[in-house]
Write a structure and sequence with these properties.
Blueprint (H helix, E strand, L loop, with lengths): L7 H10 L4 H8 L3 H8 L7 H11 L11 H12 L11 H10 L1 H30 L13 H11 L5 H14 L6 H13 L2 E5 L9 E4 L4 E5 L4 H16 L1 H11 L4 H20 L2 H10 L4 H8 L3 H8 L3 E2 L2 E2 L4 E5 L5 E6 L28 E6 L5 E11 L9 E10 L20 E2 L24 E2 L11 E2 L1
Parallel strand pairs: 1-3, 8-11
Antiparallel strand pairs: 2-3, 4-5, 6-7, 6-10, 8-9, 9-10, 12-13
């Protein structure tokens, strides 16, 4: 079922930026002032005629005029308010929804303030330990978001879709015709013909971390010897994005108003990676193939000459207006359970702090070799997800070079089961369902035998006369 589109905050900002009253703005849209007032207060959803009038009357890009991702924002607000410092606060779900929808700027400011508070607490503990042991502390400002935290939130709240970059990559893909045999060679030829940049291979020691280097003066893109074909192709496509989309990427970065130059630099890299994926897997062609194969990531990787990881990332971006794919999340974790990458166009909640649920099948990927694991999982809010996980091993170039292993996870809501091949082996009505949570500190389930810590928003029940498998209970 299609969700109603509310955009009160964006409409109000647009009107105020034009220095128009509600009456004059409504007149230009061909609606009444009272109707506009209801739209601005999110009491009425946007309709197609109003959106069309906006596009024609104010020359806005409807793809960029997207709704704030209130589902993710609402989850993050709930997570922050579960902190014990808010123990006396009982947030009303409707109030939180109103804050996320009507005043997202305040919600983000609150989340940044809470994150700063947590970091100051952590820094204070480290400082106390440093003082007691005589060690010198860091000059890092604990009240400032770390660059990767800023970038994580930027992609998170944009639902991981950038229409202008996506369409530019699709147009370029049609010109280069990269979806044929040897896309790496086609891209290398294009890079030389269009930008006078040669692609060369560099031999390095096995222990070297080097992958790519661009020599601007010599116009040479150096790539590590022994890279697998999918990685090599992706790095060439990335270089095309750096050379051709610098202005578009800079516009996006400037609009984000990052607090640190490092965050802006990391985002430029992330957006260039986004362009590279869209170039290798152009939107319409990739979406058609995804639907035809029922989102079979393994088959899609073979069809486009990419890796499972690259396909998983691309699946999480298929949110073009009027041509949306099944919403997916994508995640990459290491053996310690650290989330290295995460992108999502789903409601699947990722914790801003702490680890992940040990019952989530992405952790099993390290144990099953090259097989794919499929799990029906249910979050505490009752939403069920089809979770797909498999291990990925990065190729090694020498016997002395240690292999790198990761677990990759993709997933979508069970409501899309008929569209997704991974649901074929599941009994959607009577089959097993794994009860998972965001992580132990946020999970309200009281009967989980894998619980590692109590939830931070529930009081503990301590009974010296009783012992269960989990050594604590809570109300």
């Amino acid at each position: 079922m299609r969700q109603k589109f509310f955009a009160g905050t964006q409409i109000r900002r647009l009107r105020e930026s034009q220095s128009l009253t509600q009456a004059s703005f409504a007149e230009r849209l061909g609606i009444s002032a009272s109707y506009l007032n209801q739209i601005e207060n999110n009491q009425r959803p946007m309709t197609a005629p109003v959106l069309l009038a906006l596009a024609q009357g104010f020359s806005i890009d409807l793809a960029e005029f997207a709704q704030e991702d209130t589902e993710h924002l609402l989850h993050d607000l709930k997570e922050a308010l579960a902190d014990p410092i808010f123990a006396s606060v009982l947030p009303n779900n409707q109030d939180l929804k109103a804050i996320a929808a009507n005043t997202p700027w305040f919600a983000h400011a609150f989340l940044n303030l809470h994150l700063s508070f947590r970091r100051i607490n952590e820094r204070t503990q480290v400082l106390n330990e440093a003082v007691s042991t005589g060690r010198v502390g860091s000059d890092e400002d604990p009240a400032v978001l770390l660059p990767y935290e800023e970038v994580r939130d930027f992609f998170h709240y944009r639902a991981n879709y950038f229409d202008g970059l996506d369409r530019a990559a699709e147009q370029r893909a049609e010109e280069i015709i990269v979806a044929q045999d040897a896309p790496s060679a086609r891209l290398a030829d294009y890079l030389f013909d269009k930008h006078a940049v040669r692609v060369e291979t560099e031999r390095v020691e096995p222990a070297s971390r080097f992958m790519r280097r661009f020599d601007r003066i010599g116009r040479v893109l150096w790539l590590r010897e022994g890279l697998d074909p999918a990685t090599r192709t992706f790095l060439i496509a990335y270089q095309v994005g750096l050379l051709e989309q610098e202005e578009a990427i800079e516009t996006i970065v400037e609009g984000a108003a990052f607090k640190s130059t490092s965050a802006a630099t990391i985002t430029r890299i992330g957006l260039s990676n986004y362009f590279a994926a869209a170039l290798l897997m152009p939107y319409e062609r990739f979406l058609a193939a995804a639907r035809a194969t029922r989102y079979d990531a393994e088959r899609l990787a073979n069809m486009f000459g990419t890796s499972f990881e690259q396909v998983g990332h691309r699946l999480s971006t298929l949110q073009r207006p009027n041509a949306r794919g099944v919403p997916f999340y994508f995640v990459r974790i290491d053996r310690a359970g650290n989330i290295i990458k995460r992108h999502s166009s789903t409601r699947f909640p990722f914790a801003r702090f702490g680890g992940t649920c040990p019952l989530w099948n992405v952790h099993e990927a390290f144990e099953i070799g090259d097989r794919t694991s499929v799990q029906m999982a249910e979050m505490p809010d009752g939403v069920r997800y089809i979770c797909v996980a498999r291990q990925a091993s990065k190729a090694i170039s020498s016997h002395s070079a240690p292999p790198r292993h990761y677990a990759l996870g993709i997933g979508c809501e069970a409501a899309y089961a008929q569209d997704v091949i991974y649901a074929d082996g599941l009994d959607l009505r009577n089959g097993p369902v794994t009860q998972i949570g965001v992580n132990c500190r946020l999970c309200e389930r009281g009967d989980c035998l894998q619980r590692a810590a109590p939830p931070i928003d529930r009081p503990l029940v301590v009974d010296p006369e009783r012992r269960d498998f989990v050594p604590f209970r809570f109300r």
